[in-house]
Write a structure and sequence with these properties.
By secondary structure, the chain is mainly α. The chain has a domain of 202 residues: Serine Threonine Protein Phosphatase 5, Tetratricopeptide repeat (Alpha Horseshoe), CATH 1.25.40.390. Helices cover 38% and strands 4% of the residues. The chain is built from 19 helices and eight strands. The strands form four sheets. It has a two-stranded antiparallel sheet with strand order 1-3. Strands 2-8 form a two-stranded antiparallel sheet. A two-stranded antiparallel sheet has the order 4-7. Helix 8 packs antiparallel against helix 9. The longest helix has 25 residues. The chain is globular and about 70 Å long.
Length: 518
């Protein structure tokens, strides 16, 4: 079913990936006679712009910077494993340096998305006549480019703004300010929203439609005080309302259905990154695993993947901070995303350790002894996505990038911030939609205007969106990103609210200046 959906809607993500020589003269000849007359034909060239998102989910890229530096997950050194020149310890301790390769990976992958958007937009804008379908998809890619710039601005602050594919050889751009990037994103997305497709079905699945663009605007405005020192809460609320009042999305009654193997029918997922294990990248690929969705391998024990009948053994890496695991109430259904206790194979056989505890039953413990010397079984392992039957090193679930639940909680937060950080009844009602799903048939777990504080809202966001790549963004907005956490007993400098410009990029472009403090 999923293969047919992707083939009919986002075949662009795989078919055109090898077409990098987009000669405008040749394409103009094709276009004038028999191509780009329908939206489907227009979309057929847009693949590379979307394909760059495949790298987003990697713990060695943007996702890793947003999660491994947060209060949710970490990669402790386990025996001879995961020392990796202490890079994962630096990420957790907020002591990273400009030469750390994960920071450079995030920069390169995200700018690859910008470049691919620029290339396809350039192609489209050369076409005459400019049909309604062509204008709509062009603006769709401009909004997608806005998403890439949002990620860059969020991670690095001011970055070079390049919005043209037709640049001279040896082009070495200077950094624009964070405010300039913010304004560019706002202008591009708001101008495009009226023309973006507002249909929500399989024809717009995995595309940056009108509601994905509005959700991006809500995130932009909610974080405006961090980005440009200006409160834009009314604009954030308006963007959320545009999604809510459209009635195109709703909470999925089953929380875990948003992350199921066949999750394309979820009414909650506004924007996803589609994956398939059919044409997955393999071990020998030069970019593996930087553009694969293989979280099951990063987190599960070497033998632990047998629980889900996975084709490959796990890498025994990522686990929950103990404090994050214990932030879930024992009756919170979302706590089931964390694996603890004795592990069994999919056939019911006991699984065993095979490292320093070789022969002992594999029992995941919420406790972690230390960042520098954890045992092979320590730490709760995340399984929010259904890992069953994963093959070719890659999951076949689609990655939920933007969810309707986030729209509800963003509006609630904006309302509370407008009210002096005190909950209004409207904010409580919004959050309780999420809360009621987490605690079915237990009204005692619902919030009131007294119990819903800002700190509790942040904790609720952590429980709802754990490992979804938004935690760093949330912590910075709430002013606690550098606060002490497990295995980081001292507060870190505010310098670390931004990552450094990668040293490799500065070496290649002398016009780039470094962020303060690095």
């Amino acid at each position: 079913m999923k293969k047919s959906i992707i083939a009919s809607v986002v075949v662009v993500l795989t078919i055109i990936l090898s077409c990098t020589d987009l000669d405008p003269v040749v394409y103009s000849e094709i276009v004038n006679d028999n191509f780009f007359k329908t939206e489907e034909q227009v979309l057929s060239a847009a693949g590379p712009a979307y394909q760059s998102l495949n790298a987003y989910v990697s713990p060695e890229g943007v996702w890793g910077l947003n999660e491994l530096t947060s209060d949710e997950v970490l990669i402790p050194t386990r025996g001879i494993h995961w020392l990796n020149n202490q890079i994962y310890q630096r990420l957790h301790k907020h002591t990273w340096i400009p030469t750390d390769f994960i920071i450079n990976n995030a920069w390169k992958a995200t700018y690859a998305g910008v470049t691919n958007c620029n290339r396809v937009i350039y192609l489209y804008e050369e076409i005459e006549p400019q049909t309604e379908a062509l204008v709509s998809v062009t603006n769709e890619l401009k909004s997608l480019r806005g998403l890439y710039y949002f990620l860059l601005m969020d991670l690095f602050g001011g970055v070079p703004l390049v919005d043209s594919f037709n640049v001279p050889t040896g082009f070495a751009p200077v950094r624009n300010s964070r405010a300039e990037i913010f304004q560019f994103i706002e202008n591009e997305v708001t101008q495009g929203v009226p023309t973006l497709n507002n249909t929500v079905n399989m024809t717009t699945y995995a595309r940056f439609n009108r509601y994905a663009a509005l959700t991006l605007l809500a995130k932009l405005y909610l974080n405006a005080e961090v980005y440009i020192g200006e409160s834009m809460l009314d604009q954030a609320i308006a963007a959320c309302d545009s999604v809510i009042l459209s009635e195109k999305y709703s909470l999925n009654k089953d929380f875990f259905a948003n992350f199921a193997i066949e999750n394309e029918n979820s009414p909650e997922n506004i924007f996803v990154i589609p994956y398939s294990d059919i044409d997955a990248v393999h071990w020998g690929d030069a970019t593996y695993p930087s553009r694969m969705f293989c979280h099951h391998l990063w987190t599960l024990h070497f033998t632990g993947t047998q629980t889900f009948n996975c084709e490959q053994g796990g890498w025994d890496g990522i686990c929950a901070l103990p404090s994050h695991y214990y932030s879930y109430d024992e009756t919170d259904i979302r706590r089931a995303m964390w694996l603890t206790g004795q592990q069994f194979s999919y056939t019911g056989d006991s699984l065993f350790c095979n490292q320093e505890k070789k022969g002992q039953p594999l029992v995941y413990t919420p406790e972690v002894n230390s960042l520098e010397g954890a045992a092979e079984n320590e730490g709760a392992r995340f399984a929010k996505y259904d890992y069953t039957g994963a093959r070719n090193y890659q999951l076949k679930n689609d990655y939920a990038f933007l969810r309707y639940a986030d729209v509800l909680l963003m509006k609630a937060e904006a309302l509370m911030r407008k009210n002096g950080s005190v909950a209004t009844q409207e904010a409580v009602d919004l959050v309780n939609q999420i809360r009621a799903r987490a605690f079915p048939n237990d009204d005692t777990k619902l919030y009131t205007t007294i119990t819903l504080t800002m700190s509790e809202l942040l904790a609720e966001r952590g429980r709802e969106f754990s490992t979804e790549g938004w935690r760093r963004n949330d912590l910075i907005r709430f002013g606690v990103y550098n606060d002490p956490v497990d295995f980081r007993p001292e507060a870190a400098s505010a310098t670390y609210n931004l990552f450094p410009i990668p040293q490799e990029q500065i070496n290649a472009n002398p016009n780039l200046s470094q962020n303060l403090g690095y």
